[in-house]
Amino acid sequence: MHPYNKNKKRGLYWKSSSMLLVGLLLTIILLVPALIVAPHTTKMTELETSTEAEVEKPAEAVTLSSDDSAFTVEVMRSETDQIEKVLLEDYVTRVVASEMPAEFELEALKAQALAARTYIVNYLAHVTDDAANVTDTVQHQVYKSDEELREVWGSDYSWKISKIKEAVAGTVGEILTYEDQPITPAFFSTSNGYTENAEDYWENALPYLKSVASPWDQDSPKFLDQKIVPIDQVEEALGVTLSQSNNDFSMTRTASNRVETVKIAEQTFTGRDIREALELRSSDFSIEQKNDHLIFTTKGYGHGIGMSQYGANGMAEDGKSYQDIVTYYYQGTEIERIEDATPTLVVKN
Q1: Are 176 and 326 in contact (CB under 8 A)?
Q2: 74 — phi, psi (to 5°)?
Q3: Residue 235: phi, psi to the nearest 5?
Q4: Residue 231 contacts residue 264 (beta carbons within 8 Å)
Q5: Are 103 and 167 in contact (CB under 8 A)?
Q6: What is the pLDDT along the chain (349 residues), one digit of tens a residue?
Q7: Is 338 exposed, middle or buried, given 0-12, 13-18 or 19+ CB atoms closer than 10 A?
């Protein structure tokens, strides 16, 4: 063969081999990353799909059946003067929804449910007039119907009522007793750092309503308040005559630092008198005079007796159970079943 042709053939062979090698390398370069990435991409997709499915999965709704209720409650509706008949546990659900923010911790809501149920059981066990019905106001317990709650809550209705039903279901049929009798489960919004002895605000002492420390309340948005009242309004509300300057407001205080008595214009009033007459948030107040106005600075919100709602929420945030909460604020009490504590009430209804 001619040397030129021989060399030409060799050149073509090497050229073909080089092109094949380049093609193979390109294939490897393109294919290998795909093989590496593909499994990872598949796992991420599965993870994302799983996460989305978990987020979109609706929460299982808690239901209360008629068998959960020991009796029916007749509520006198203040706006219509009509009686609304409602199953006990539905009544408790709607009272809790009306008395405590649904945003509170579940264990705090359970404590409120226990207080609400105990209140109505105690009330019905002691009422003597068959025609006397519980009202839907603060005279007894605030109560809103399901329709009213839907209107108040709007788009938040579903999750709020579900959470409260969960709290009620978690305590269904339970009440608080002292020496085997239902208690008066007083509650209020926010303390001044301590709850009040019952006898220091009401007339009579109750052994389970004793002052306890409630430091969690300092985080409440209702802990501090100021109210400025013109002197002439104070005079009219209290039936006194004040000077336009240098009035003396001598005070004595209870063990929980609320005002026991205060001397105004040579007359002595209780802290409760002043709070109610001037519609102050609390009976823990100080008074400062500025020209023709009095400035009342208050700590806490409510009468201060029994369970602090913001205190209960603070305890729940600290990991305490509803049993811990109620037995702390209601000293010496126990949790019992309605049918065990008040069998005659269950039979009567």
Answers
A1: yes
A2: -105, 115
A3: -60, -45
A4: no
A5: no
A6: 544 444 444 444 434 444 444 444 444 444 444 433 333 333 333 323 333 333 333 445 778 888 888 899 999 999 999 999 999 999 999 999 999 999 999 999 999 999 999 999 999 988 876 556 899 999 999 999 999 999 999 999 999 999 999 999 999 999 999 999 999 999 999 999 999 999 999 989 999 999 999 999 999 999 999 999 999 999 999 999 998 777 889 999 999 999 999 999 989 999 999 999 999 999 999 999 998 999 999 999 999 999 999 999 999 999 999 999 999 999 999 999 999 988 877 655 6
A7: buried
Determine whether 272 is exposed, middle or buried from the number of CB atoms within 10 Å of its CB (0-12, 13-18, 19+).
middle
Q: Which amino acid is at 288?
A: E
- Cα 162 to chain centroid, rounded: 14
Query: In terms of residues, how long is the chain?
Result: 349
Write the secondary structure of 93-111 as one string of H (helix), E (strand) and C (coil): HHHHHHHCCCCCCHHHHHH
167 and 112 in contact (C-beta within 8 Å)?
Answer: yes
This prediction's pTM? 0.80
Half-sphere exposure of 311 (CA within 13 A, CB side): 27
Phi first, then psi: give them for residue 100, nearest 5 degrees: -135, 140
CB 329 within 8 A of CB 198: no
CA distances for 227 relative to 275, 278, 279, angstroms: 11, 9, 9
Cβ atoms < 10 Å from Cβ of 47: 10
Closest C-alpha among 118, 94, 98, 96 to residue 184: 118
The identity of residue 273, as a single letter, is D
Whole-angstrom distance, CA of residue 130 vs CA of residue 133: 8
Instruction: Evaluate whether 200 touches 254 at the Cβ level (below 8 Å).
Output: yes
